[in-house]
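worker-3 :: picked DUF5808 domain-containing protein
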Amino acid sequence: MSAMFALIDLVVIGIFYAVYGTKRTYSEGMLLGVHLPQSAAESGEVTAFMARYHRNTKIFYAVNVVISTAVCGVCFWYFSVFMIIWSVWLLEFCIGAMVLLYGNHRKLYDMKVERGWIGSSGSRIMAVDTKAAARSGRMGLSAWWHLLFCALILMPCLDADIRKYMMTSEDGWIFPVTGLLVSLTFGILHAAILRMRNKVYSEDSDLNVEINRMQKNVWSWALVGSSLFNAAAYLFVVSGIDANGWLSTGVLVIYCIMESMPGVFMIGGFFYMRSRKEKLLQKNAHPLYIDDDVYWKNGWYSNPNDKRLMVQDWACSWNYTTNMAKPAGKICMFLAIVFVAVCLVWGCVEMWKIDFVPIGVNVSEDQVEITSGYSDYVIDCDDITGVELLEKLPDDDYRKINGGEDPHKMLGRFKGENTGKCRMYLYVGYTPILEITTGDGPVYVNSEDGEKTEEWMRELSAEVDNEVKE
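worker-3 :: tokens ->
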């Protein structure tokens, strides 16, 4: 787990650095998102400012590589403590990266205003290319392709055995529902990108059309390819289910690899678009610079005269941001922040409960209640067909369906290749283990105190005997 999170952290930091932290050069009349004449961009004052910015950026990202790696060491203790510290680090990193970028953007903008610099000669505050705008909806592949991939995901439901597996298995619905949601998300994103207004780069309308068509075509192919691999991953999983409804580790590994391909398509598409765009702009004989810095001065877009809700971000051409001058823009941003904050807090609280709320068993006249930090589980005494003390778990390959599993505890629903579906409320490494056999599969539970587990066994045995006598 520690190695996995360390790798994830390096990937996240690498993506942030590639998108927001790399050395920014003067391009399209802009430096760090601020329109400047080339003479100002090459002045000693601005050169020194950018050198400080690049140095501070490298220090910030290097320090966060060290911190994130150190934080992952907490995984060897309690996972919930690690998640809390990791969430704090992630917030620090994301906020710090944006403050570093936006703060220096604002400083350069203020410098521009103080010095009286204007954008490159002929700059305009806005521009419209009617020819390019008229072709906005005629570029890229159709977003309707994603419905075909949704149909492919639903196609296995025609098989009676697959339908039975989906209805009877606790995890049978996870893969198809996930596949459908992913494909529909790609489809919505695809449709939104195709509807985006074309950007104006030049007084040459044909060049504007060519660049915008290239970008929308690349996005279309990347999203269609992503949706295709998502559907293929699900079909592969379905073909790998054995007669007992079991998926081998190899099948799951290949599934994860196939589901990671959308990330490859997106990143590859971004770098291809950037390279291709630079080559196309090299033959731009009549560049057109849009000096709209006043609307971006704080780092985000705020233009009350623009009817658009979503606009292309200055910091990353493949990212879109909301128009904060519109009430809907503020609401979207607020809801996004609240959603992320609630998810982080909720996740940390639930993991804390899993680690530190003790496992307990309460036996009453007609039911047995098992309590834990993950969830409580109630068993009717009528459903209990046997109880037994085990020195260890049955030798099987168990896979978690939902719940929590770490070096300290195993909580929730599991599935064994031979045992089938079962529930576990266990402290790892502690014996004995109480096995409660029910019509819905066995339940395994224990305590850190072996005598407590034996006491649960005596109480349950007495209650089961009474039920049998009655």
